[in-house]
Prior knowledge:
The protein is an alpha/beta fold. It has eight helices and eight strands, in the order βαβααβαβαβαβαββα.
Amino acid sequence: MTRILITGSTDGLGYATAESLLGQGHEVIVHARSAARAEAVSALIDRGADLVIADLADRGAVLDAMDELNEGRAIDAVIHNAGVLTGPSLLPVNVVAPYLCTALLTTPSRHVYLSSSMHRDGKAQLAGLDWSGGSVTASYSDTKLLVAAFSAGVAELWAPRVLANSVDPGWVATKMGGSGAPDDFDLGHETQERLAVDPSLQVTGGYWHHGAEQQPAVGVRDADFRSRLIAELAEVTGVALPTR
C-alpha cells in the first residue's frame, strides 16, 4: 500500500486520480484550496482519504501545509496535479508550489508533475518572471515547460533514491479542458497513477503521455536551464532543494 498526496483533487483529473487510487487500496491525501472547496471531496474523505487545505497561490499557506504533512504519517509519492490556466497565480500555483512541496516534504520517493503538450509553446527563459504572482509575466505554456524542466532536474539530482517524472495528461474533458475535449478521460489519469505506485516502474526523468515516454521540448532537456531554474526557485523562495 502506498500513501499518496494529490494536489488539486477537488475535481477533474485530480479527483479521478484520488478516487481510482483509493479504489486500488492505497492511502490518499486529497487537497483543497479552501474549507469551502473541501466539500467537493467529502465522499473521498468518507472512504478514508485524509485532507490538507492550502491555497497554493499563498506561499505562507503552502509552507504551513508542508509542516502539517511532515508531522503526519510518511508520504510515499506526490502527484502535483493542481494548476491554473490564466491569471497572476500561474507561476505561484503551477511552479512555485510544486517546487516547495518537493523541497520540503521529507519522505516521498516518487514525484509526478502534471505538464501539458502546450509546454512546447513555452519559453525556456527566466528573465522578468514575477514568481510572487503580483503580475502576469508567464503564460500557461511557459509554466508547463518550467515544471517539466524542474521535474527533469529533480530526477537528475535525486537519482536513484527519488523518481521524478512529468506527464502530459492530454486534452480531456475537465473544467480546464472544456466539455468538448477529445481525449480519453481515463487515459488522462492512469499514467500518473502508475508512476506514483507501480513498483515495477522504476524510470525517472521521463516525460509521459498515455503510458508512453516522449521527447519533451528542447528547453526541458537543457541541463543548464534546469540548473538555473532550480537555483532561481531556491533564491526567490528562500528554500533550497536539499540532497536526497
